[in-house]
From TrEMBL:
It comes from the Bacteria. It comes from Thalassospira profundimaris. This is Tricarballylate utilization protein B. InterPro entries: Citrate_utilization_prot_B, NarG-like_sf. Keywords: Membrane, Transmembrane, Transmembrane helix. SUPFAM superfamilies: 4Fe-4S ferredoxins, Respiratory nitrate reductase 1 gamma chain.
Length: 375
């Protein structure tokens, strides 16, 4: 079993907390901890993905620095999360991309956007800066777009599914059809409501400062639902195109437009709010994590919404070609970085919350239960 300085530190802090238990009311991490006496790598990977980095236990801890125990639970969990994202990545060697994530995502976006624009401009010639009756399909035909994004989408889906399977198996969850529906529903409910960003008392988390606040929870909800609505916009467009022979462009009251506009606004409000909070945040509960990964992901989400809404506005003007290339370049970078960046947190957190619902119902530990070896 894996044994690193990060797994050892997470096991150390959990062993101290297990004797203290002052924070048991804050979140699921402490309740899951209390079911155990030992913390191996699988167990701490589970606890790390349960921790929502709300900061409450850091600000309430009598053993936090400058105490000699130097206890910082959220930092230990955040640093371990960053390590285990790489451990569960598929294919394994791509896990290295979680280090210096912000840097390579920025470089990739510059390369992809530049190549996409240069290639489209050279292939379309005068048509690049021209008005088209069929909107952006006049610049890049539908089949070319569907082929390119379909192929990349399939690889991304495969990489995400195989990473989740690896994590699922480590969590010792049974096959999905053998899970109790009520417990799965509880896990999904806790994930969608971001239950553990409420600080345990409903007042919100200690983020960006010690004073409890619901700001992060709200801005995350704008980001999450904005993303889901944009996904619904693309899916409904695909269904209308292939299922009903109704190709784009669509009117303002069509499903793709309504989902796209509301989702785009959510993906502007949410990431801007989260970026502002991050700029003000106390760095201690975050530990030595890769801030660039969070910022890179937030900026990509924000740019995808801004360029998407801009494309809608310039659809009938000669700027459609250029704006389309900007938008598609950003979306392609977002797609390519999904299995190797911040995006994976949603899946691992959801799985961890389902495990927690199962353990809570059975009153016994699931993860690490067959392996007693200590880290
Ligand atoms: C199962 C669903 C999800 C859960 C439970 C969840 C939970 C969380 C939590 C607890 C955090 C704060 C701790 C951390 O930085 O890791 C976070 C951060 C973040 N999440 Fe999610 N998330 C989910 C899905 C998503 C999705 C689908 C998106 C957008 C596509 C998203 C975007 C973000 C962003 C941008 C951050 C960084 C915010 C910051 O740095 O302040 N999340 N998420
Ligand atoms: S974080 Fe500190 S106060 Fe909270 S349970 Fe652990 S040791 Fe106790
Ligand atoms: S930071 Fe918040 S979510 Fe994480 S262990 Fe502490 S109280 Fe729980």
């Amino acid at each position: 079993m894996r044994s690193t300085t990060k797994t050892a530190e997470a096991a150390r802090v959990m062993s101290i907390c297990n004797a203290c238990r002052y924070c048991e009311g804050h979140c699921a991490v402490f309740q899951a901890m209390e079911l155990r006496l030992e913390f191996n790598a699988d167990t701490v990977d589970y606890l790390a993905n349960l921790c929502h980095n709300c900061g409450a236990c850091y600000h309430n801890c009598q053993y936090a620095p400058p105490h000699e125990f130097n206890l910082n639970v959220p930092a230990a969990m955040a640093e371990l999360r960053q390590e285990n994202y790489g451990v569960y990545a598929w294919p394994g060697f791509m896990g290295k991309l979680f280090a210096r994530n912000g840097l390579w995502v920025s470089l990739l976006s510059i390369v992809v956007i530049t190549l996409f624009t240069a290639l489209t401009a050279s292939l379309t010639g005068e048509n690049f800066f021209a008005r088209h009756d069929n909107g952006f399909y006049g610049v890049i035909p539908h089949n070319v777009l569907a082929g390119l994004f379909g192929a990349v989408g399939l690889f991304v889906a495969l990489a995400l599914v195989l990473s989740c399977v690896k994590f699922w198996r480590t969590m010792q969850l049974p096959a999905p059809h053998r899970l109790n529906f009520r417990q799965v529903f509880q896990g999904i409910k806790d994930a969608l409501s971001l239950k553990y960003l409420d600080g345990g008392n409903g007042q919100g988390c200690s983020y960006p400062t010690e004073t409890p606040s619901m700001a992060r929870r709200w801005f995350h909800q704008f980001t999450f639902w904005g993303f889901m609505l944009c996904f619904a916009a693309t899916s409904s467009g695909t269904i209308l195109h292939y299922g009903f022979d109704l190709p784009a462009p669509y009117g303002f009251l069509s499903l793709p437009k309504l989902f796209g506009i509301t989702g785009g606004l959510g993906l502007i409000i949410g990431p801007i709010g989260l970026l502002v909070l991050k700029a003000k945040a106390d760095p201690m509960p975050k530990g030595k994590t890769n801030k660039g990964m969070d910022v890179g992901f937030l900026v990509l989400l924000l740019l995808s919404a801004i360029t998407g809404l801009a494309l809608m506005l310039v659809r009938d003007t000669p700027y459609v070609g250029f704006t389309l290339c900007l938008h598609l370049g950003v979306i392609l970078t977002l797609f390519l970085s999904m299995p190797y960046g911040k995006f994976v947190h949603g899946f691992y957190r959801l799985i961890a919350l389902v495990v927690f619902a199962v353990e809570k119902n059975d009153h016994k530990p699931l993860v690490g239960s067959c392996k007693t070896k200590k880290v």
